[in-house]
Hints:
alpha/beta; six-stranded mixed beta sheet; 5 helices
Amino acid sequence: xxxxxxxxxxxxxxxxxxxxxxxxxxxxxxxxxxxxxxxxxxxxxxxxxxxxxxxxxxxxxxxxxxxxxxxxxxxxxxxxxxxxxxxxxxxxxxxxxxxxxxxxxxxxxxxxxxxxxxxxxxxxxxxxxxxxxxxxxxxxxxxxxxxxxxxxxxxxxxxxxxxxxxxxxxxxxxxxxxxxxxxxxxxxxxxxxxxxxxxxxxxxxxxxxxxxxxxxxxxxxxxxxxxxxxxxxxxxxxxxxxxxxxxxxxxxxxxxxxxxxxxxxxxxxxxxxxxx
Length: 276
């Protein structure tokens, strides 16, 4: 019995060391494919990086450089950054100014542009300062706004929805700017707005949840922030009106740990149905 107790203690210690010391710095890239029946244009590659939380342990400027290099290496047509560039109150973390974060993100390159929304931590820091820093380096911030992206098949609209947790989400305002028959892609910080998406959207992306940061086998995420249920903590949302992917993000908040939930960027290859 005494030996068993020591084995249990050693196992817990190893898991703690892994969760705090290693996994938060183990950056992955998730590759996805999606066939969109409503899309008739050429294939598109969309790269996504959410919840950068620059300044949290393992997610400082060196990690941000890795994220930028990883996204650029995927040669995307479009890059989306769905919020939470800043971090606050994480043990062992530090505050990195928005201008320094934007300076690294300025290296991102995509023919259709680089776009962002703001997250709850950005607003908790200073949303307008974060917005200005991003826009100064050419990153367009969409807060309940839409923009037409020129493609070979005509305009493809991108909609950005404001953060739900801080009361900035206005989905109706954002979608009102898109012509009724136009194809669109949605970017939002919080998946709480997934039920509000119009069925004509090709795909939607969200972050905010960090996948719960701790995911246990057979249980999944232990805790997720905001209004979304735990089953929406990461991956494709099974009951959304349109294909909606929630990325577990890059940095950490509250506690500087991850278990069974390594940081990630996402690359989606979107295509039209094959001719029959």
